[in-house]
Structure formats: structure tokens, C-alpha cells
Design a protein that fits this description.
binds 1,3-dihydroxyacetonephosphate, eight-stranded parallel beta barrel
Length: 256
């Protein structure tokens, strides 16, 4: 069965000390309050990552993710971080294709496909992020856009490689705006994504693929979103920066 997952993407927030305090508090609360087998992932900035990993070592319900990796294995790329380095500190995941990387760093489909490959080669599972812009939804292009994002960066994989990927549907108009996709809109898209995966990789892969929702997910709306049949959890931005809010989102699975 596919896993229920909540990942906190801190983006470029929290200094080292604030970040470590956040993880310690959230772990404590989640371990106290959670009854289910939800995987909680901390996608901290690189500066925290090795020490966050040390805090979670030994807990099967926690993992770490990098927010990015370079598309080459190593070399003269000043300031960049390689997938092999991320793996070497014990992290299991890496975000690839976040809309902020696509928008501000001009990462295109081909570059994201390379990043997916380099992550998998280095034993990291990509959390592949994608989703349509506001204008694309307004022009009823959202299904086409999403299908194309999946095809261009992921369909070169075989079913075994694809089964290591977590998908995160994040409509760009919902990110950081307070505008959440309604549970019906999100479910409709998640069901569409799963049926595309089934066509490409087969039923078993599609049924076992975790598809997360991201975009203004918060303690108030998490439960209704996560109750939808094709929504397996969330990728949380702003609300992952407060241990109480993040814990409430993770533990909303307790009453589903
Ligand atoms: P917000 O939850 O702040 O809208 O951000 C979502 C996101 O981009 C997570 O990757």
C-alpha cells in the first residue's frame, strides 16, 4: 500500500538554531500525538540537513529531504550540492521541480529529467513537484500542462525507477497565496494524475504511488484534503515553519 506522507518544505527560512529547535519540537509533538504510520519529512535548507538527519536517526516515521540538487554528479560548480553528498549524510529524498526553481532558476523539463536521474543513481527518491499556473487553469489548460510536466521529466524512466518517486501536485496559484485548491479540485487532479501514471507504468505502480498536495495547506484544511481518496498527504510550506501547525497537519491523519 502507498504511504501517507507529510513533508515540510522550509524554503529559505530559519537560521541554524531556529531550524534545529523546530525539528526537535515537532518530533516531540508528533511522536506524542501520532497513532498512525505517517511518514514525516523535513526538507530543511542544506545548512541544517546533516544535523536534522542525526536527530531523526533511528525513527522510521521521520526522514529528511534536500530542497534541490545539481544535475551533474560532481565537478566545478561552485556553490552547488551533488546528490551523492546529500545521500552521504543519510538523507533519503530530494525535492525536484518545485515551481520556485522552475520560475526563478529557469529549470526546464529537460534539466529536471537530468536531476531525477542523478538523484535515483545516488539512491535518493525524488519528490517531484509540478502544477499549473493561474492563467493555465483559467484557460482550462491545467490537465494538459500537468500531463506534459509528468511526460517530459519522468516518462523516460522504467516502472521500477518510477516507483521510487513521490509526486507533489502544487498548483502555482495556491503556493503562498492563502488560496487553496478545494478538496474537489485537488481530488479531480490527483485522480487524473494517477490515471496518467497507470497508462504509462501500469496499475500496480499507479496504486502504490504517493501523490501529495501542496499549496496553502494548513491546520484547518489539511484533514478535508487528506480525506480525498487520491490525496496521500501534503507538501507544506509556510505552515511547516511552526511546530504546532506542522504537527496538527501531520496528526490530522489520526481522525481520517
Ligand atoms: P505554502 O504551503 O506556503 O503555500 O507552500 C507550498 C509549497 O510550495 C511547498 O513546497
Amino acid at each position: 500500500m502507498r504511504r501517507k506522507i507529510v513533508a515540510g518544505n522550509w524554503k529559505m527560512n530559519k537560521n541554524y538554531h531556529e531550524g534545529m529547535e523546530l525539528v526537535a519540537e515537532a518530533m516531540h509533538m508528533i511522536n506524542d500525538e501520532l497513532n498512525t504510520e505517517v511518514l514525516t519529512i523535513f526538507a530543511s535548507p542544506f545548512i541544517h540537513l546533516a544535523n536534522v538527519q542525526k536527530l531523526i536517526n533511528g525513527y522510521s516515521n521521520f526522514a529528511t529531504a534536500a530542497q534541490n540538487c545539481h544535475h551533474e554528479n560532481s565537478g566545478a560548480y561552485t556553490g552547488e550540492i551533488a546528490a551523492s553528498m546529500i545521500h552521504s549524510i543519510g538523507a533519503s529524498y530530494v525535492l525536484i521541480g518545485h515551481s520556485e526553481r522552475r520560475q526563478y532558476f529557469k529549470e526546464d523539463h529537460a534539466m529536471l529529467a537530468k536531476k531525477v536521474d542523478v538523484a535515483l543513481e545516488n539512491h535518493l527518491s525524488p519528490i517531484f513537484c509540478f502544477g499549473e499556473l493561474k492563467e493555465e487553469r483559467e484557460n482550462a489548460k491545467h490537465f494538459e500542462v500537468v500531463a506534459n510536466q509528468l511526460k517530459e521529466s519522468l516518462y523516460h524512466l522504467d516502472a521500477t525507477a518510477f516507483s521510487k518517486i513521490i509526486l507533489a501536485y502544487e498548483p502555482v496559484w495556491a503556493i503562498g497565496t492563502g488560496l487553496t485548491a478545494s478538496p474537489e479540485q485537488a481530488q479531480e487532479m490527483h485522480a487524473f494524475i494517477r490515471s496518467n501514471i497507470e497508462t504509462q507504468f501500469g496499475k500496480e505502480v499507479a496504486v502504490n504511488c504517493s501523490i501529495l498536495y501542496g499549496g496553502s495547506c494548513n491546520p484547518q484544511n489539511a484533514k478535508t484534503l487528506f480525506s480525498q481518496p487520491d490525496i496521500d498527504g501534503g507538501l507544506i510550506g509556510g505552515a511547516s515553519l511552526k511546530s504546532r501547525d506542522f504537527t496538527t497537519i501531520v496528526t490530522s491523519f489520526n481522525s481520517i
